[in-house]
Amino acid sequence: MWTEKYRPKKLNEIAGQTQVVKRIKGFVKEKTIPNLLLWGPKGTGKTSFVYALANELYGSYDENVMLIETSDFVEQRKKWLKEDKRFKFFYDEQKSAIDVFKEIIREYAALKPINATFKLLFFSNADLLPGNAQQALRRVIERSNKTCRFVFSTTRPAGIIPAVRSRCLNLHFTSLDKRGVLDTVIMSIADAEDVKLTKGGLKTLREYARGDVGAAINMLEAAATPPMPPQVHEGLTRKSSKGLIDGSRIEEIVQNAFFQRKKAEELIDSASMGRYKEVRAGLEFLIKDEKIGGKEILVELHEALRRKMKTEEEKEKKKLAKKFARLVLYEGEADLKLCNSLNTIIPLEEMLTQFFFFN
């Protein structure tokens, strides 16, 4: 995959995060770092930063780095712990998932690193960790400072408890599309892969990526690798089969691969026409069948609303601005309720119902 092929290997290769790299360089020079909290929008280089940092600290000693994908643990709990080979010596069917998880973290943090002063324990999407797990982490951080450093990445820093945030150096990752960095990264990859990306194609890709460089690279790769037609000669190289990628080609890829956005638009259309059964069925399909989180659906609904407002008549601009502001308030209320709700369908269904009555 191109996301791995072009993932930065060194800190200096991290695009668009000059201030973050500058702050950490002094620590790396001394072969030490504090605990870190990396926060910012999705696809801004937080995970790549951790891997680049590990390369500079350890070289080939990847045994000193352990990645915990928090969303996997939160969604699958014991199933994830049981199937992950790294945890087979800790798994106990008689214990709760959270107790097993705490034991794993304590044991790993206490183990001595290999040919290094400390190890890295990296929590991706750390805001999803339950509060009691974060409280347990606070105590582990204090006790294992000589053997381990903790790195937390999140798009929502408020989801990290103050006791953990205060024990970390906070590093803010800014969106890549605001300063043209995303365009630079995508065009450099297109040139390296001999892909001809038009200005229209780049613009469309940028709109759909929303600053997420990983999503942009995946879309570019999908657009650049169409299926080989049967009449093409077997000796034809892959590079020579790549054609011009314009806006319509990106649109085609998005429609096929990013169905969440299409489903969000369908939900809004159903809500605006008062088709509540379709709204309920659509939410159940996304949450129960596709295993998509409530927060993700809320983001997609917001973007779908924004696109819908843009397509309306210009003369209705002021009226639409007020309407959109009211809808965003409904979104905010739903976002707050999702933080404490045991059933994610209810706040989203309530919000979409409000959309209909506001129309």
Fold-level CATH name of the largest domain: Rossmann fold
Rounded radius of gyration (Å): 23 Å
Give me the strand/helix succession. Answer: HHEHEHHHEHEHEHEHHEHHHHHH
Order of strands, main sheet, comes to 2-3-4-1-5
CATH class of the largest domain: Alpha Beta
Put simply, the count of helices is 17
SSE diagram, text form:
Layout: H1 2-5, H2 18-29, E1 36-39, H3 46-58, E2 65-69, H4 70-76, H5 78-83, H6 97-110, E3 119-124, H7 131-143, E4 148-154, H8 162-165, E5 169-172, H9 181-192, E6 196-197, H10 199-209, H11 213-224, E7 244-245, H12 247-257, H13 259-272, H14 276-289, H15 294-310, H16 317-340, H17 345-358
Question: Could you explain the architecture of this structure?
Answer:
By secondary structure, the protein is α/β, with parallel strands linked by helices. The chain has three domains: 2-172, Rossmann fold; 181-227 and 234-257, Helicase, Ruva Protein, domain 3 (Orthogonal Bundle), CATH 1.10.8; 259-358, Zinc Finger, Delta Prime, domain 3, CATH 1.20.272.10. The protein is 56% helix and 8% strand. It is built from 17 helices and seven strands. It has helices at 2-5, 18-29, 46-58, 70-76, 78-83, 97-110, 131-143, 162-165, 181-192, 199-209, 213-224, 247-257, 259-272, 276-289, 294-310, 317-340, 345-358, and strands at residues 36-39, 65-69, 119-124, 148-154, 169-172, 196-197, 244-245. It has a five-stranded parallel beta sheet. It has a two-stranded parallel sheet with strand order 6-7. The two termini are 44 Å apart.
Short description:
It is built from 17 helices and 7 strands. It is α/β, with parallel strands linked by helices and 359 residues long.
